[in-house]
Protein backbone atom coordinates (compact mmCIF):
# COMPACT_ATOMS: atom_id res chain seq x y z
CA UNK A 1 0.00 0.00 0.00
CA UNK A 2 2.88 2.39 0.86
CA UNK A 3 4.54 1.66 -2.49
CA UNK A 4 1.30 2.33 -4.34
CA UNK A 5 0.80 5.60 -2.46
CA UNK A 6 4.32 6.79 -3.25
CA UNK A 7 3.94 5.83 -6.91
CA UNK A 8 0.62 7.70 -7.18
CA UNK A 9 2.10 10.81 -5.55
CA UNK A 10 5.20 10.68 -7.79
CA UNK A 11 3.09 10.34 -10.93
CA UNK A 12 0.99 13.33 -9.92
CA UNK A 13 4.09 15.45 -9.11
CA UNK A 14 5.63 14.71 -12.52
CA UNK A 15 2.58 14.56 -14.76
CA UNK A 16 1.19 18.04 -14.03
CA UNK A 17 4.36 20.13 -14.76
CA UNK A 18 5.29 17.91 -17.71
CA UNK A 19 1.84 18.42 -19.20
CA UNK A 20 2.01 22.18 -18.59
CA UNK A 21 5.46 22.55 -20.25
CA UNK A 22 4.44 20.39 -23.23
CA UNK A 23 1.35 22.53 -23.79
CA UNK A 24 3.35 25.79 -23.50
CA UNK A 25 6.01 24.55 -25.93
CA UNK A 26 3.31 23.43 -28.37
CA UNK A 27 1.76 26.91 -28.32
CA UNK A 28 5.19 28.57 -28.98
CA UNK A 29 6.00 26.18 -31.82
CA UNK A 30 2.59 26.81 -33.36
CA UNK A 31 3.16 30.57 -33.32
CA UNK A 32 6.68 30.13 -34.77
CA UNK A 33 5.35 27.94 -37.59
CA UNK A 34 2.77 30.55 -38.55
CA UNK A 35 5.34 33.35 -38.37
CA UNK A 36 8.01 31.49 -40.44
CA UNK A 37 5.45 30.46 -43.07
CA UNK A 38 4.11 33.98 -43.45
CA UNK A 39 7.66 35.39 -43.60
CA UNK A 40 8.60 32.87 -46.33
CA UNK A 41 5.61 33.95 -48.41
CA UNK A 42 6.62 37.63 -48.05
CA UNK A 43 10.26 36.90 -49.07
CA UNK A 44 9.08 34.87 -52.08
CA UNK A 45 6.88 37.74 -53.27
CA UNK A 46 9.74 40.22 -52.70
CA UNK A 47 12.08 38.01 -54.73
CA UNK A 48 9.71 38.04 -57.68
CA UNK A 49 9.53 41.85 -57.73
CA UNK A 50 13.18 42.49 -56.74
CA UNK A 51 15.58 39.73 -57.78
CA UNK A 52 18.47 41.80 -56.38
CA UNK A 53 17.18 41.07 -52.89
CA UNK A 54 19.58 38.14 -52.60
CA UNK A 55 22.55 40.49 -53.06
CA UNK A 56 22.26 41.51 -49.41
CA UNK A 57 24.52 39.72 -46.97
CA UNK A 58 24.19 39.67 -43.24
CA UNK A 59 21.93 42.70 -42.91
CA UNK A 60 20.74 42.93 -39.32
CA UNK A 61 17.77 44.99 -38.17
CA UNK A 62 17.08 45.64 -34.49
CA UNK A 63 13.33 45.95 -33.80
CA UNK A 64 11.95 48.51 -31.32
CA UNK A 65 11.03 47.37 -27.81
CA UNK A 66 7.27 47.35 -28.49
CA UNK A 67 7.37 46.41 -32.15
CA UNK A 68 5.36 43.76 -33.90
CA UNK A 69 8.25 41.33 -33.77
CA UNK A 70 9.05 41.98 -30.15
CA UNK A 71 10.34 38.81 -28.49
CA UNK A 72 10.84 36.93 -31.80
CA UNK A 73 13.97 36.72 -33.96
CA UNK A 74 13.60 36.25 -37.71
CA UNK A 75 16.28 35.25 -40.22
CA UNK A 76 16.44 34.79 -44.00
CA UNK A 77 18.96 32.41 -45.64
CA UNK A 78 19.71 31.87 -49.31
CA UNK A 79 19.75 28.44 -50.97
CA UNK A 80 23.35 27.82 -49.82
CA UNK A 81 22.49 28.66 -46.22
CA UNK A 82 24.16 32.09 -46.22
CA UNK A 83 22.49 34.59 -43.88
CA UNK A 84 20.88 37.38 -45.91
CA UNK A 85 18.73 39.23 -43.40
CA UNK A 86 18.09 39.14 -39.66
CA UNK A 87 15.35 40.89 -37.68
CA UNK A 88 15.90 40.65 -33.92
CA UNK A 89 14.10 42.08 -30.90
CA UNK A 90 15.63 44.80 -28.76
CA UNK A 91 16.67 42.17 -26.22
CA UNK A 92 18.27 38.99 -27.55
CA UNK A 93 16.00 35.98 -26.86
CA UNK A 94 17.25 34.09 -23.82
CA UNK A 95 18.16 30.42 -23.73
CA UNK A 96 16.57 27.99 -24.28
CA UNK A 97 15.27 28.78 -27.77
CA UNK A 98 12.52 27.21 -29.83
CA UNK A 99 13.07 27.56 -33.58
CA UNK A 100 11.12 26.74 -36.76
CA UNK A 101 12.31 26.89 -40.40
CA UNK A 102 10.26 27.24 -43.60
CA UNK A 103 11.46 27.02 -47.24
CA UNK A 104 11.07 29.99 -49.61
CA UNK A 105 9.56 28.71 -52.87
CA UNK A 106 9.34 30.55 -56.19
CA UNK A 107 7.67 28.67 -59.06
CA UNK A 108 8.06 25.42 -57.11
CA UNK A 109 11.83 25.91 -56.66
CA UNK A 110 13.52 26.42 -53.26
CA UNK A 111 15.55 29.64 -53.37
CA UNK A 112 16.09 30.06 -49.66
CA UNK A 113 14.55 29.68 -46.21
CA UNK A 114 13.24 31.64 -43.26
CA UNK A 115 13.71 30.94 -39.56
CA UNK A 116 11.71 32.13 -36.57
CA UNK A 117 12.92 31.75 -32.96
CA UNK A 118 11.55 32.54 -29.52
CA UNK A 119 12.74 32.00 -25.98
CA UNK A 120 11.26 29.21 -23.85
CA UNK A 121 12.60 30.71 -20.65
CA UNK A 122 9.25 32.15 -19.53
CA UNK A 123 7.31 28.87 -20.04
CA UNK A 124 10.16 27.03 -18.30
CA UNK A 125 9.96 29.34 -15.27
CA UNK A 126 6.18 28.89 -15.15
CA UNK A 127 6.68 25.11 -15.37
CA UNK A 128 9.01 25.24 -12.38
CA UNK A 129 6.32 27.14 -10.47
CA UNK A 130 3.70 24.56 -11.45
CA UNK A 131 6.13 21.79 -10.47
CA UNK A 132 6.53 23.33 -7.04
CA UNK A 133 2.77 23.45 -6.56
CA UNK A 134 2.24 19.92 -7.88
CA UNK A 135 5.00 18.58 -5.64
CA UNK A 136 3.26 20.17 -2.67
CA UNK A 137 -0.08 18.63 -3.73
CA UNK A 138 1.61 15.27 -4.35
CA UNK A 139 2.99 15.36 -0.85
CA UNK A 140 -0.52 15.96 0.51
CA UNK A 141 -1.92 13.13 -1.64
CA UNK A 142 0.81 10.78 -0.43
CA UNK A 143 0.00 11.63 3.16
CA UNK A 144 -3.75 11.04 2.57
CA UNK A 145 -3.14 7.71 0.89
CA UNK A 146 -0.87 6.64 3.72
CA UNK A 147 -3.51 7.30 6.33
CA UNK A 148 -6.50 5.99 4.21
CA UNK A 149 -7.86 2.87 5.95
CA UNK A 150 -7.09 -0.39 4.19
CA UNK A 151 -10.55 -1.61 5.23
CA UNK A 152 -12.21 0.05 2.21
CA UNK A 153 -9.94 -1.75 -0.23
CA UNK A 154 -10.30 -5.03 1.62
CA UNK A 155 -14.09 -4.73 1.54
CA UNK A 156 -14.09 -4.02 -2.18
CA UNK A 157 -11.88 -7.03 -2.93
CA UNK A 158 -13.95 -9.25 -0.67
CA UNK A 159 -17.16 -8.10 -2.35
CA UNK A 160 -15.78 -8.77 -5.81
CA UNK A 161 -14.62 -12.24 -4.76
CA UNK A 162 -18.02 -13.00 -3.23
CA UNK A 163 -19.94 -11.92 -6.32
CA UNK A 164 -17.73 -14.09 -8.53
CA UNK A 165 -18.50 -17.21 -6.49
CA UNK A 166 -22.12 -16.78 -5.37
CA UNK A 167 -25.59 -16.54 -6.86
CA UNK A 168 -26.82 -12.95 -6.58
CA UNK A 169 -30.47 -13.89 -6.04
CA UNK A 170 -30.16 -16.49 -3.28
CA UNK A 171 -26.68 -15.85 -1.91
CA UNK A 172 -25.82 -19.54 -2.37
CA UNK A 173 -22.58 -20.75 -3.98
CA UNK A 174 -22.84 -20.74 -7.76
CA UNK A 175 -21.84 -23.45 -10.23
CA UNK A 176 -18.17 -22.42 -10.25
CA UNK A 177 -17.74 -22.50 -6.48
CA UNK A 178 -19.76 -25.73 -6.28
CA UNK A 179 -17.42 -27.41 -8.79
CA UNK A 180 -14.38 -26.27 -6.81
CA UNK A 181 -15.76 -27.58 -3.51
CA UNK A 182 -16.78 -30.88 -5.13
CA UNK A 183 -13.24 -31.33 -6.45
CA UNK A 184 -11.82 -30.71 -2.98
CA UNK A 185 -14.41 -32.98 -1.35
CA UNK A 186 -13.55 -35.87 -3.68
CA UNK A 187 -9.83 -35.44 -2.98
CA UNK A 188 -10.39 -35.56 0.78
CA UNK A 189 -12.88 -38.41 0.42
CA UNK A 190 -10.40 -40.52 -1.51
CA UNK A 191 -7.64 -39.81 1.01
CA UNK A 192 -9.86 -40.65 4.00
CA UNK A 193 -11.80 -43.46 2.26
CA UNK A 194 -15.06 -41.55 2.75
CA UNK A 195 -18.07 -41.42 0.48
CA UNK A 196 -18.95 -38.12 -1.19
CA UNK A 197 -22.59 -37.80 -2.21
CA UNK A 198 -24.05 -35.28 -4.66
CA UNK A 199 -27.79 -34.59 -4.65
CA UNK A 200 -29.16 -32.85 -7.74
CA UNK A 201 -32.42 -31.04 -6.97
CA UNK A 202 -35.01 -29.87 -9.48
CA UNK A 203 -38.16 -27.95 -8.55
CA UNK A 204 -41.44 -29.36 -9.83
CA UNK A 205 -44.06 -26.95 -11.22
CA UNK A 206 -41.75 -23.94 -10.91
CA UNK A 207 -42.49 -22.87 -14.50
CA UNK A 208 -46.19 -22.67 -13.64
CA UNK A 209 -45.41 -20.13 -10.91
CA UNK A 210 -43.38 -18.00 -13.34
CA UNK A 211 -46.11 -18.18 -15.97
CA UNK A 212 -49.05 -17.44 -13.68
CA UNK A 213 -47.62 -15.12 -10.99
CA UNK A 214 -44.74 -13.52 -12.90
CA UNK A 215 -40.95 -13.57 -12.71
CA UNK A 216 -40.84 -11.42 -9.57
CA UNK A 217 -42.85 -14.07 -7.74
CA UNK A 218 -40.54 -16.71 -9.23
CA UNK A 219 -37.50 -14.93 -7.82
CA UNK A 220 -39.20 -14.60 -4.42
CA UNK A 221 -39.99 -18.32 -4.53
CA UNK A 222 -36.37 -19.24 -5.29
CA UNK A 223 -35.22 -17.20 -2.30
CA UNK A 224 -37.72 -19.00 -0.08
CA UNK A 225 -36.63 -22.37 -1.46
CA UNK A 226 -32.98 -21.59 -0.75
CA UNK A 227 -33.82 -20.64 2.83
CA UNK A 228 -35.80 -23.82 3.48
CA UNK A 229 -33.21 -26.09 1.88
CA UNK A 230 -30.36 -24.45 3.81
CA UNK A 231 -32.19 -25.17 7.07
CA UNK A 232 -32.03 -28.92 6.38
CA UNK A 233 -28.24 -29.18 5.96
CA UNK A 234 -25.31 -29.74 8.27
CA UNK A 235 -22.52 -27.18 8.58
CA UNK A 236 -20.10 -29.14 6.40
CA UNK A 237 -22.65 -29.70 3.60
CA UNK A 238 -22.71 -27.38 0.57
CA UNK A 239 -25.90 -26.15 -1.06
CA UNK A 240 -25.54 -24.37 -4.41
CA UNK A 241 -27.83 -22.93 -7.04
CA UNK A 242 -26.65 -24.16 -10.42
CA UNK A 243 -29.06 -21.98 -12.41
CA UNK A 244 -32.79 -21.57 -13.01
CA UNK A 245 -34.64 -23.89 -10.63
CA UNK A 246 -31.71 -26.33 -10.29
CA UNK A 247 -29.93 -26.77 -6.97
CA UNK A 248 -27.31 -29.25 -5.76
CA UNK A 249 -25.93 -30.49 -2.44
CA UNK A 250 -22.51 -31.93 -1.55
CA UNK A 251 -22.73 -34.27 1.41
CA UNK A 252 -19.50 -35.29 3.16
CA UNK A 253 -18.43 -37.90 5.66
CA UNK A 254 -21.77 -39.56 6.30
CA UNK A 255 -23.08 -43.09 6.53
CA UNK A 256 -24.28 -43.85 3.05
CA UNK A 257 -26.68 -44.40 1.45
CA UNK A 258 -28.91 -43.99 4.51
CA UNK A 259 -27.92 -40.38 5.22
CA UNK A 260 -28.50 -39.24 1.62
CA UNK A 261 -31.88 -40.98 1.51
CA UNK A 262 -32.89 -39.33 4.78
CA UNK A 263 -31.77 -35.89 3.53
CA UNK A 264 -33.61 -36.36 0.23
CA UNK A 265 -36.87 -37.20 2.04
CA UNK A 266 -36.42 -34.22 4.32
CA UNK A 267 -35.77 -31.82 1.45
CA UNK A 268 -38.82 -33.10 -0.43
CA UNK A 269 -41.00 -32.77 2.66
CA UNK A 270 -39.87 -29.24 3.51
CA UNK A 271 -40.83 -27.97 0.04
CA UNK A 272 -44.27 -29.58 0.10
CA UNK A 273 -45.54 -26.81 2.38
CA UNK A 274 -47.08 -23.92 0.36
CA UNK A 275 -45.07 -20.72 -0.12
CA UNK A 276 -46.72 -17.40 0.67
CA UNK A 277 -45.62 -14.95 -2.03
CA UNK A 278 -46.47 -11.30 -2.57
CA UNK A 279 -48.30 -12.28 -5.77
CA UNK A 280 -50.22 -15.16 -4.22
CA UNK A 281 -49.56 -18.67 -2.94
CA UNK A 282 -47.41 -21.29 -4.67
CA UNK A 283 -47.31 -25.05 -4.20
CA UNK A 284 -44.33 -26.82 -5.72
CA UNK A 285 -42.50 -30.10 -5.33
CA UNK A 286 -38.98 -31.45 -5.52
CA UNK A 287 -37.30 -34.30 -7.38
CA UNK A 288 -33.89 -35.53 -6.22
CA UNK A 289 -31.19 -37.56 -7.95
CA UNK A 290 -28.30 -38.94 -5.88
CA UNK A 291 -24.84 -39.95 -7.06
CA UNK A 292 -22.11 -41.27 -4.75
CA UNK A 293 -18.37 -41.92 -5.02
CA UNK A 294 -16.80 -45.23 -4.08
CA UNK A 295 -14.71 -45.21 -0.86
CA UNK A 296 -10.99 -44.82 -1.63
CA UNK A 297 -11.50 -44.92 -5.42
CA UNK A 298 -10.87 -42.03 -7.81
CA UNK A 299 -13.94 -40.25 -9.14
CA UNK A 300 -14.13 -37.33 -11.53
CA UNK A 301 -16.44 -34.47 -10.45
CA UNK A 302 -18.03 -34.29 -13.89
CA UNK A 303 -18.84 -38.01 -13.83
CA UNK A 304 -20.37 -37.80 -10.36
CA UNK A 305 -22.54 -34.90 -11.51
CA UNK A 306 -23.64 -36.87 -14.58
CA UNK A 307 -24.57 -39.79 -12.35
CA UNK A 308 -26.68 -37.56 -10.11
CA UNK A 309 -28.32 -35.98 -13.17
CA UNK A 310 -29.22 -39.40 -14.53
CA UNK A 311 -30.73 -40.35 -11.18
CA UNK A 312 -32.70 -37.07 -11.20
CA UNK A 313 -34.01 -37.89 -14.66
CA UNK A 314 -35.22 -41.25 -13.36
CA UNK A 315 -36.86 -39.58 -10.36
CA UNK A 316 -38.80 -37.22 -12.62
CA UNK A 317 -39.74 -40.08 -14.94
CA UNK A 318 -41.13 -41.97 -11.97
CA UNK A 319 -43.67 -39.23 -11.32
CA UNK A 320 -41.78 -36.39 -9.59
CA UNK A 321 -41.79 -35.62 -5.91
CA UNK A 322 -39.38 -38.49 -5.19
CA UNK A 323 -35.71 -39.43 -5.22
CA UNK A 324 -33.55 -42.00 -6.97
CA UNK A 325 -30.00 -43.27 -6.56
CA UNK A 326 -27.77 -43.66 -9.59
CA UNK A 327 -27.24 -47.21 -10.77
CA UNK A 328 -25.07 -48.54 -13.58
CA UNK A 329 -28.14 -49.73 -15.45
CA UNK A 330 -29.33 -46.11 -15.58
CA UNK A 331 -26.35 -45.21 -17.72
CA UNK A 332 -27.08 -48.23 -19.89
CA UNK A 333 -30.68 -47.09 -20.33
CA UNK A 334 -29.46 -43.60 -21.22
CA UNK A 335 -27.16 -45.02 -23.88
CA UNK A 336 -30.01 -47.13 -25.24
CA UNK A 337 -32.26 -44.10 -25.31
CA UNK A 338 -29.69 -42.07 -27.22
CA UNK A 339 -29.27 -44.92 -29.71
CA UNK A 340 -33.05 -45.11 -30.08
CA UNK A 341 -33.24 -41.37 -30.76
CA UNK A 342 -30.49 -41.64 -33.38
CA UNK A 343 -32.29 -44.54 -35.09
CA UNK A 344 -35.57 -42.57 -35.06
CA UNK A 345 -33.87 -39.64 -36.79
CA UNK A 346 -32.37 -41.99 -39.34
CA UNK A 347 -35.72 -43.68 -39.96
CA UNK A 348 -37.37 -40.30 -40.47
CA UNK A 349 -34.69 -39.23 -42.92
CA UNK A 350 -34.62 -42.50 -44.89
CA UNK A 351 -38.34 -43.40 -44.91
CA UNK A 352 -38.02 -46.22 -42.40
CA UNK A 353 -41.57 -45.93 -41.02
CA UNK A 354 -44.65 -47.60 -42.45
CA UNK A 355 -48.35 -47.67 -41.72
CA UNK A 356 -50.53 -50.64 -40.88
CA UNK A 357 -54.29 -50.44 -41.38
CA UNK A 358 -56.89 -52.04 -39.12
CA UNK A 359 -60.37 -52.34 -40.66
CA UNK A 360 -63.25 -50.47 -39.05
CA UNK A 361 -66.51 -52.39 -39.47
CA UNK A 362 -70.15 -51.33 -39.63
CA UNK A 363 -71.46 -53.82 -37.08
CA UNK A 364 -74.92 -54.09 -38.56
CA UNK A 365 -74.01 -55.22 -42.10
CA UNK A 366 -70.35 -56.18 -41.43
CA UNK A 367 -69.12 -53.87 -44.20
CA UNK A 368 -65.69 -52.26 -44.04
CA UNK A 369 -66.29 -48.52 -43.73
CA UNK A 370 -62.73 -47.37 -43.10
CA UNK A 371 -59.49 -48.12 -41.33
CA UNK A 372 -57.32 -46.81 -38.55
CA UNK A 373 -53.75 -46.04 -39.60
CA UNK A 374 -51.23 -47.40 -37.09
CA UNK A 375 -47.55 -46.43 -37.10
CA UNK A 376 -45.05 -49.27 -37.51
CA UNK A 377 -41.24 -49.29 -37.46
CA UNK A 378 -38.90 -52.12 -38.34
CA UNK A 379 -35.89 -50.93 -36.40
CA UNK A 380 -32.60 -52.17 -37.85
CA UNK A 381 -31.17 -54.90 -35.64
CA UNK A 382 -34.30 -55.05 -33.47
CA UNK A 383 -37.12 -55.95 -35.82
CA UNK A 384 -40.66 -54.67 -35.46
CA UNK A 385 -40.80 -52.23 -32.55
CA UNK A 386 -44.19 -51.48 -30.96
CA UNK A 387 -45.10 -47.77 -30.89
CA UNK A 388 -45.30 -47.66 -27.10
CA UNK A 389 -41.54 -48.35 -27.04
CA UNK A 390 -40.52 -45.37 -29.17
CA UNK A 391 -43.38 -42.83 -29.21
CA UNK A 392 -42.38 -41.54 -25.75
CA UNK A 393 -38.83 -40.80 -26.93
CA UNK A 394 -40.17 -39.19 -30.09
CA UNK A 395 -42.37 -36.92 -27.97
CA UNK A 396 -39.53 -35.95 -25.61
CA UNK A 397 -37.12 -35.13 -28.44
CA UNK A 398 -39.62 -33.22 -30.59
CA UNK A 399 -39.50 -35.83 -33.36
CA UNK A 400 -43.17 -36.61 -32.92
CA UNK A 401 -44.05 -33.55 -35.02
CA UNK A 402 -42.34 -34.65 -38.26
CA UNK A 403 -43.20 -38.32 -37.63
CA UNK A 404 -46.87 -37.46 -37.09
CA UNK A 405 -46.87 -35.25 -40.18
CA UNK A 406 -45.48 -38.12 -42.24
CA UNK A 407 -48.19 -40.44 -40.88
CA UNK A 408 -50.99 -38.00 -41.79
CA UNK A 409 -49.61 -37.47 -45.30
CA UNK A 410 -49.13 -41.19 -45.93
CA UNK A 411 -52.57 -42.09 -44.55
CA UNK A 412 -54.26 -39.53 -46.84
CA UNK A 413 -52.29 -40.78 -49.83
CA UNK A 414 -53.27 -44.41 -49.19
CA UNK A 415 -56.93 -43.55 -48.56
CA UNK A 416 -57.16 -42.01 -52.03
CA UNK A 417 -56.63 -45.54 -53.42
CA UNK A 418 -59.73 -46.85 -51.65
CA UNK A 419 -63.41 -46.53 -52.51
CA UNK A 420 -64.78 -43.01 -51.97
CA UNK A 421 -67.05 -44.00 -49.05
CA UNK A 422 -64.15 -45.22 -46.87
CA UNK A 423 -62.59 -43.09 -44.14
CA UNK A 424 -59.10 -43.09 -42.67
CA UNK A 425 -58.44 -42.46 -38.96
CA UNK A 426 -55.08 -41.17 -37.70
CA UNK A 427 -53.97 -40.80 -34.08
CA UNK A 428 -52.58 -37.40 -33.06
CA UNK A 429 -50.17 -37.37 -30.11
CA UNK A 430 -50.89 -34.82 -27.36
CA UNK A 431 -47.38 -33.44 -27.85
CA UNK A 432 -47.87 -33.16 -31.61
CA UNK A 433 -51.17 -31.40 -31.01
CA UNK A 434 -49.49 -28.78 -28.81
CA UNK A 435 -46.71 -28.12 -31.32
CA UNK A 436 -47.17 -25.41 -33.90
CA UNK A 437 -48.11 -26.34 -37.42
CA UNK A 438 -50.68 -29.13 -36.98
CA UNK A 439 -53.40 -27.24 -38.85
CA UNK A 440 -51.02 -26.47 -41.72
CA UNK A 441 -49.87 -30.11 -41.75
CA UNK A 442 -53.45 -31.38 -42.15
CA UNK A 443 -54.36 -28.89 -44.87
CA UNK A 444 -51.14 -29.68 -46.75
CA UNK A 445 -51.78 -33.45 -46.58
CA UNK A 446 -55.33 -33.01 -47.87
CA UNK A 447 -54.23 -30.76 -50.74
CA UNK A 448 -51.29 -32.98 -51.73
CA UNK A 449 -53.36 -36.16 -51.76
CA UNK A 450 -56.64 -34.73 -53.02
CA UNK A 451 -58.51 -36.52 -50.23
CA UNK A 452 -61.84 -35.06 -49.18
CA UNK A 453 -61.59 -33.62 -45.63
CA UNK A 454 -64.76 -35.52 -44.69
CA UNK A 455 -62.87 -38.80 -45.15
CA UNK A 456 -60.12 -37.89 -42.66
CA UNK A 457 -60.66 -38.58 -38.96
CA UNK A 458 -58.22 -37.37 -36.29
CA UNK A 459 -58.23 -39.30 -33.03
CA UNK A 460 -57.19 -37.50 -29.85
CA UNK A 461 -57.08 -38.60 -26.23
CA UNK A 462 -58.40 -36.71 -23.24
CA UNK A 463 -54.87 -35.63 -22.28
CA UNK A 464 -54.90 -33.25 -25.28
CA UNK A 465 -57.60 -31.24 -23.50
CA UNK A 466 -55.98 -31.08 -20.06
CA UNK A 467 -53.90 -27.94 -20.71
CA UNK A 468 -54.70 -24.66 -22.48
CA UNK A 469 -58.28 -25.81 -22.99
CA UNK A 470 -59.44 -22.66 -24.77
CA UNK A 471 -56.61 -22.78 -27.33
CA UNK A 472 -57.09 -26.52 -27.74
CA UNK A 473 -60.81 -26.19 -28.40
CA UNK A 474 -60.09 -23.39 -30.85
CA UNK A 475 -57.67 -25.62 -32.76
CA UNK A 476 -60.21 -28.47 -32.80
CA UNK A 477 -62.76 -26.02 -34.12
CA UNK A 478 -60.45 -24.93 -36.95
CA UNK A 479 -59.80 -28.54 -37.95
CA UNK A 480 -63.49 -29.37 -37.85
CA UNK A 481 -64.12 -26.25 -39.91
CA UNK A 482 -62.10 -27.86 -42.69
CA UNK A 483 -64.56 -30.74 -42.68
CA UNK A 484 -62.22 -33.11 -40.80
CA UNK A 485 -63.86 -35.41 -38.24
CA UNK A 486 -62.65 -35.46 -34.63
CA UNK A 487 -62.87 -38.60 -32.47
CA UNK A 488 -62.16 -38.96 -28.75
CA UNK A 489 -60.01 -42.04 -28.28
CA UNK A 490 -60.01 -44.22 -25.12
CA UNK A 491 -63.26 -42.64 -23.99
CA UNK A 492 -64.18 -43.35 -20.37
CA UNK A 493 -60.65 -43.89 -19.06
CA UNK A 494 -60.03 -40.25 -18.06
CA UNK A 495 -61.43 -37.99 -15.37
CA UNK A 496 -63.27 -35.33 -17.31
CA UNK A 497 -64.51 -36.98 -20.48
CA UNK A 498 -68.14 -35.96 -19.93
CA UNK A 499 -67.18 -32.32 -19.36
CA UNK A 500 -65.29 -32.22 -22.64
CA UNK A 501 -68.30 -33.60 -24.51
CA UNK A 502 -70.21 -30.55 -23.37
CA UNK A 503 -67.45 -28.17 -24.56
CA UNK A 504 -66.78 -29.70 -27.98
CA UNK A 505 -69.04 -31.61 -30.40
CA UNK A 506 -66.97 -34.70 -31.18
CA UNK A 507 -67.90 -36.80 -34.21
CA UNK A 508 -67.07 -40.13 -32.64
CA UNK A 509 -66.44 -41.74 -29.26
CA UNK A 510 -64.09 -44.71 -29.18
CA UNK A 511 -64.85 -47.11 -26.34
CA UNK A 512 -61.60 -48.28 -24.77
CA UNK A 513 -60.65 -51.93 -25.27
CA UNK A 514 -60.40 -52.47 -21.50
CA UNK A 515 -64.22 -52.26 -21.25
CA UNK A 516 -64.81 -54.37 -24.37
CA UNK A 517 -62.50 -57.11 -23.10
CA UNK A 518 -64.68 -57.81 -20.05
CA UNK A 519 -68.05 -57.70 -21.80
CA UNK A 520 -70.25 -60.57 -20.66
CA UNK A 521 -67.96 -61.28 -17.70
CA UNK A 522 -67.93 -58.04 -15.70
CA UNK A 523 -71.29 -56.32 -15.09
CA UNK A 524 -69.53 -52.98 -14.59
CA UNK A 525 -67.86 -53.18 -17.99
CA UNK A 526 -71.17 -54.02 -19.64
CA UNK A 527 -72.85 -51.11 -17.85
CA UNK A 528 -70.15 -48.66 -18.97
CA UNK A 529 -70.38 -49.82 -22.59
CA UNK A 530 -74.15 -49.54 -22.50
CA UNK A 531 -73.93 -46.05 -21.02
CA UNK A 532 -71.38 -44.82 -23.59
CA UNK A 533 -73.39 -46.21 -26.50
CA UNK A 534 -76.56 -44.65 -25.13
CA UNK A 535 -74.81 -41.34 -24.60
CA UNK A 536 -73.37 -41.31 -28.12
CA UNK A 537 -76.84 -42.00 -29.54
CA UNK A 538 -78.31 -39.17 -27.47
CA UNK A 539 -75.56 -36.77 -28.63
CA UNK A 540 -75.90 -37.82 -32.25
CA UNK A 541 -72.33 -39.13 -32.60
CA UNK A 542 -71.01 -42.51 -33.63
CA UNK A 543 -69.63 -45.02 -31.15
CA UNK A 544 -66.67 -47.25 -32.02
CA UNK A 545 -65.69 -50.21 -29.84
CA UNK A 546 -62.01 -51.14 -29.98
CA UNK A 547 -60.44 -54.51 -29.22
CA UNK A 548 -63.27 -56.79 -30.37
CA UNK A 549 -61.72 -60.27 -30.43
CA UNK A 550 -64.67 -62.63 -29.96
CA UNK A 551 -68.02 -63.26 -31.60
CA UNK A 552 -69.83 -62.89 -28.27
CA UNK A 553 -68.38 -59.41 -27.77
CA UNK A 554 -69.55 -58.36 -31.23
CA UNK A 555 -73.04 -59.76 -30.52
CA UNK A 556 -73.33 -57.93 -27.21
CA UNK A 557 -72.18 -54.65 -28.80
CA UNK A 558 -74.70 -55.07 -31.59
CA UNK A 559 -77.45 -55.69 -29.02
CA UNK A 560 -76.43 -52.48 -27.21
CA UNK A 561 -76.75 -50.53 -30.46
CA UNK A 562 -73.02 -49.90 -31.08
CA UNK A 563 -72.60 -48.96 -34.73
CA UNK A 564 -68.91 -49.48 -35.37
CA UNK A 565 -66.19 -51.85 -34.17
CA UNK A 566 -62.62 -52.83 -34.83
CA UNK A 567 -60.47 -55.63 -33.47
CA UNK A 568 -58.74 -58.90 -34.23
CA UNK A 569 -62.03 -60.71 -34.70
CA UNK A 570 -62.65 -58.65 -37.85
CA UNK A 571 -59.07 -58.00 -38.88
CA UNK A 572 -55.61 -57.42 -37.50
CA UNK A 573 -53.55 -54.38 -38.52
CA UNK A 574 -52.18 -55.13 -41.99
CA UNK A 575 -50.09 -53.60 -44.72
CA UNK A 576 -51.58 -51.32 -47.37
CA UNK A 577 -51.31 -54.11 -49.94
CA UNK A 578 -53.08 -56.64 -47.71
CA UNK A 579 -55.81 -54.13 -46.93
CA UNK A 580 -56.38 -53.50 -50.64
CA UNK A 581 -56.74 -57.23 -51.21
CA UNK A 582 -59.23 -57.39 -48.34
CA UNK A 583 -61.30 -54.60 -49.90
CA UNK A 584 -61.53 -56.42 -53.20
Automatic annotation (TrEMBL):
Chain segments annotated as transmembrane: 124-145
Pfam families per the UniProt record, alphabetical: EAL (PF00563), GGDEF (PF00990)
The species this protein was found in: Roseomonas haemaphysalidis
Residue ranges annotated for the GGDEF domain, each copy included: 194-328
Name of the molecule in the record: EAL domain-containing protein
Superkingdom field: Bacteria
Record-annotated EAL domain positions: 337-584
Swiss-Prot/TrEMBL keywords: Membrane, Transmembrane, Transmembrane helix
